[in-house]
Write a structure and sequence with these properties.
single chain, Aminopeptidase, disordered N terminus, disordered C terminus
Length: about 160
């Protein structure tokens, strides 16, 4: 995944395709958010360009987005880090409410896992609100464990299915 792809990174029988974002895609990607979910982080473009660094983040970084019928329905981003002694951090994950529970998040996470693997990253953390049971359940199903009130992690490989995955 060393460059922006003009064709989907992943395509299967569902009508959703996954693409790698460039800085020019960020406005379109961010616009997929439902109004009830608030606006996307205004620093997303700067993050992707390497001009905004979350705590202890390093380059490289990647953003991927899901498209269905020419409409962006979700996105994910991650980067190399030293936060809490981890190697990678899942920075953003969003799926439009009308498209949740349809495995789009899992497909985005799977593609991010491939990118992390290509970068030699296996120990990954993610910040997740303690009251966000949907995200916590999603992450737990793919092997994440809680390590503090607001953080979950994959200690032995990102995307390792848990007992219920």
């Amino acid at each position: 995944m060393g460059h922006v792809h003009d064709s989907p990174l992943h395509e299967d029988v569902s009508p959703v395709s996954i693409y790698r974002a460039s800085p020019a895609d960020v406005q379109r990607v961010a616009a997929c958010r439902h109004p009830d979910d608030g606006v996307a982080d205004e620093r997303m473009r700067a993050y992707l360009e390497g001009r905004h660094d979350p705590h202890e983040a390093e380059g490289p970084r990647v953003m991927l987005y899901a498209v269905e019928s020419a409409v962006v329905v979700g996105y994910i981003a991650g980067h190399r880090t030293h936060r809490f002694g981890f190697e990678g951090e899942l920075q953003y994950l969003y799926v439009h409410p009308d498209r949740r529970r349809q495995r789009i998040a899992t497909r985005l996470i799977t593609q991010l896992a491939e990118w992390f693997s290509s970068e030699g990253i296996s120990r990954v953390c993610v910040n997740v609100a303690s009251d966000n049971s949907g995200a916590r359940d999603c992450y737990a199903k793919i092997g994440a464990q809680e390590f503090s009130t607001h953080w979950m992690c994959w200690e032995n490989g990102f995307m390792t299915p848990g007992p219920h995955g």
